[in-house]
Amino acid sequence: MKVILTKKVPSLGNIGEVANVSQGFGRNFLFPNGLAVLADESDKKQLENEKRRLAKKAEEVRGHALVLKKHIDDISLELVRKVGPNGRLFGMVTTAELSKFLEEKGVHVEKRLITVSSPIKALGNYKASVKLFSDVEGTFKIKVVMDPEQAKEIKEREAEAIKAKAKKKSEKPVEETNEEKAPLTEEERLRAEAEKIIS
User: pTM to 2 decimals?
Assistant: First the structure.
């Protein structure tokens, strides 16, 4: 069954496109929800009017998408995250989180429309794109930085480690007391001689 989409349907296409669907999908889902109309030969005149109306609607949606693209292209998100000892994030930044951050910036975008160039699992700079219309795609920047409190803790631990190392070097080793040593066994004597020969 051929139908003309009256709204954007993710699995089929954009407004005004002709799609071939099963009868059950068309009658049970698309028609009742107002997502499509039947592309029937007997209603050719009505079909042409519908196509013109949908073309106007598609152009309006495309114009709105272009305005939104300009706004998205100017966005740069800075995300503060805690990291593990190897520099990797605890968890991953998901498209759902990015969608929430974009909404805070005044842009409402569904998470399924966001595509990240590479998985965000470590600190650094990333780019993500948002598919707004079939030929309109906005791109925004993401910068993932370490949590300032965690950075402060790490610096304090490093400073303590340096102090401890300096303190250890400054301390002189305790001189061994001249206690009588137990006589070496045959095996210990041979091992000591082997070490002298090797070194």
Answer: 0.58
